[in-house]
Amino acid sequence: MNEGLIITLLLCLPLMTFVIIRLFFGIRWPIFSGYLATLILLIITFLSFLIAWQYFFIYGKINSSYALFVPIDIKWLVFTRQLSINFTIIIDAISVMMLVVVSFISLMVHVFSLAYMKGEQRYGYYFAYLALFTFAMLGLVLSGNLFELFMFWELVGISSYLLIGFYYTKPEAVSAAKKAFIVTRFADFGFLIGILIMGGLANNFDIIQIITSIGEQQYLWKGAAASFLGMSTLTWACLLLFIGAAGKSAMFPLHIWLPDAMEGPTPVSALIHAATMVVAGVYLIARFFPVFQMDVTVLHIIAFIGSGTALFAAIIACTQTDIKRVLAFSTISQIGYMMLSLGVDDNLTGIHLGYSAAMFHLFTHAFFKSLLFLCAGVIIHTVHTNNMHEMGGLRKQLPVTHISFLVACLAISGIPPFSGFFSKEAILSAAYNNHKWVYAVALITAGITAFYMFRLYFSIFWNKPVITTLKKEGMGLMQLALIVLTLLVIITGYVPFGDFISANGKPVLLEVHFGFSVIPIALSVLGFFYAAILYYRENNLPSSLEKSFGWFYQTVKKKFYIDELYLFITRIIIFKGIGSSIAWIDKNAVDGAVNTSSGITNWLSVFIKKLQSGKVQQYAFYFLIGVLCLLVIVMYTF
User: Fold this and answer.
1) Radius of gyration of the chain from Cα atoms?
2) Phi and psi at residue 571, in whole multiples of 5°?
C-alpha cells in the first residue's frame, strides 16, 4: 500500500471520528459512539504497526542506517521563493516509534474506557474528545514543518483542556483545566518566539531543511556566532524551544499543572498525562537534537533541569496520599529522567547513548505508566476514593489489578527483568559516562522512586486486613487492557531498541553490565524494603516519622509551596500590585485625558454653534467687523 495513502488514512480517521461523534452520534447513540471510536482506533493502530513494519524491516534502512522520508509535502503559504509554510509529513525512526506508542496506548485507553466510563452523562462526547486528542498527537509526531508542528502542538493543548475539564460541573476540574491551559500557553509563547528565531536563522521553516542547514548552508553556524544579551542567537532559539518543551512535559518550574490535571477521568490520565502528551516535549528535543548539539550550553541546562525535576518530584511523591497525585509526580520525575538523558548527550563525535536511552525510556514508560494509571482507575472504581489511607487489603478482591500494579511498580523501580530496568540502566550509563553529578542525582532518584511506588503498593493491597465486603473483580474490558499492558511491560525491555532508534540512524548498543547495575538495583531494593517496613502492616512508624521531620515534611507535602508562590505572584504582585497601578493610570490618566479632551471639544462646539444663528443682521455685523480688522492689519503693514 502507498505510504502517503496510509498516512492520510491515519490522520483523517480520528478527525472524522471526532466530527461524526461530536455532531451526530454523541447524544443519540453514546454506546455506539464508544464502540465506533474504539474500532477506528483499532484500525489506526493496525496502520501504525504496518508503517513501523515497512519502515524498520523493508525500506527504511539504507546503508546500515535508518533514513528519513517525506511521503507528503504540500505547499500551503508561500512568502518568498525560499520561505514558505508547507504541510509536510516526515517518516523516520522516532516518528514511527511515537506512532506506535500513541496509537496503541490510545487503543488500550479506549478499550478500558468502554467499561470504566459506562453510565457517564456525556459518554459519547468523551470518546469524541479522545479521538481529537489522538488526531492532534499523531499530527504532532508526523509534522515536518515548524508551524505545522506548532498548530498540532496547540491542538493537543485544546483537546487536553477538554478532557481535563470533562467533569465540568466540578469546580476542581474546571480550575485544573484552566490551570493546565494557561501554564502551557505561557510556555508556548516562548516556543513560538523560538520557532520564529530558528526559522529566521535557517531561512526555512522546514524541519529537515533546518537540520540540513547545519552542515550545508551554514545559516545556523552564523546564529551561533551572533550575540544577544550575552548569549548567541542560536542559544536563545534552542532555549525558547526548550521552554515550550518544558511546559508540555511539566518540567520545573512549569510542572504545577500536571498534578491538578488528575481531576480528569482516570483513563485520560493514562493517555495524556502519562504516556503521550507529556512526552511531547521530550519528542521535540529529540526531533531537533542535531541543532541542540550545536550549543552544549542549552544541553547542560536541559540536563540540570531534568535531573533537578526528577529528584524534586520524587521527593514530593513520597508525601502524597492521593493515588493519582503520587502517579502524577512520578510522571514528572520520569520525564525528568528522559530530559537529563538527552542533556548529557553533549558529545558531537561520540556514540549518542543518551539520545537512544531517553527514547527507550519514553517507550517503556508509556506502557508501565499507563498500566499504573489504569490500575488506579480500577481501584478507584472499586473503593470510590483516591486516598490511599482509606485503602488496604485489596489484593484478593482485585487479583488481576494487584499483579498488574506490582509488575508496573517493579518496572518503574528498575528491578530486573522488567522493561524499566533496561531503559533506566541505559540512562544511568549515559549519565555516568558524561556527567558524574547527573548520575549521582539520577541514582538517588532511582532509590526514592522504588520507595514511593512500593509505599503506594503496600498501602493499597496490604497494610490492612483483606477486605471481603467489596464486589470481586470481574474479567471485563478493563482487565483485558491491564493484561495486555502487563505482558508488554514484561517483554518490551528485551527489544533491541538501539538497533532502531539513534541520533544518527546508526545502531547503538544499549547493553546492560550487571556489575554497573549492582548499585542501582541495591538502592531500589533498599527502597522496597524500607517501604515494606513502614507500610506492609498498619503501624505507627509512618506517623512518627512525619512528626520527627516536622516542618520539612509539611513543606514537602505542600509541594514546597510552589503553587502558593505562583498564586502570590499572580494575585498580589501582578493583579493587585502591577494590575491595580495600571488600572489606576488607565482610569485616571488615560480616561481623564480622553474625558478632558472631549469636554473641551464639547465646549468649543457649543461656543462655535452660536456663530451660526441664522440671523442675517448678525452675519452682516460679523462681516463688517472682519473687514475693519483687515483694514487695520493692512494699514499697520504698509
Assistant:
1) 30
2) -80, -45
CA distance 279 to 276: 6
Cell 551572533 belongs to residue: 226
Mean pLDDT along residues 279-308: 90
- Partners of 228 in beta bridges: 231
DSSP conformational letter for 537:
B
**Residues with Cβ < 8 Å from 17, sequence gap 6 or more?**
36, 37, 40, 127, 128, 131
| DSSP bridge partners of 227 | 232
The dihedral region occupied by 198, where left means phi > 0, alpha psi between -120 and 50, and beta the remainder, is: alpha
Report the distance separating Cα 445 and Cα 57, nearest Å: 37
Residues 6+ apart with CB under 8 A from 167: 173, 263, 264, 265
Distance CA 90, CA 7 (A): 10
Q: What is the pLDDT of residues 148-167, one digit of tens each?
A: 999 999 999 999 999 999 88
Task: Report the pLDDT value the prediction gives residue 284, as an integer from 0 to 100.
Answer: 93
Length of the chain measured in residues: 638
> Is the predicted pLDDT of residue 332 greater than 90, yes or no?
yes
DSSP letter (8 states) at residue 319? T
**Dist. CA 118–CA 123, nearest whole Å:** 7
Grid cell 471526532 in the structure block, residue: 18
Buried b (16+ CB within 10 A) or exposed e, 438-456: bbebbebbbbbbbbbbbbb
Residue 416 DSSP SS3:
coil
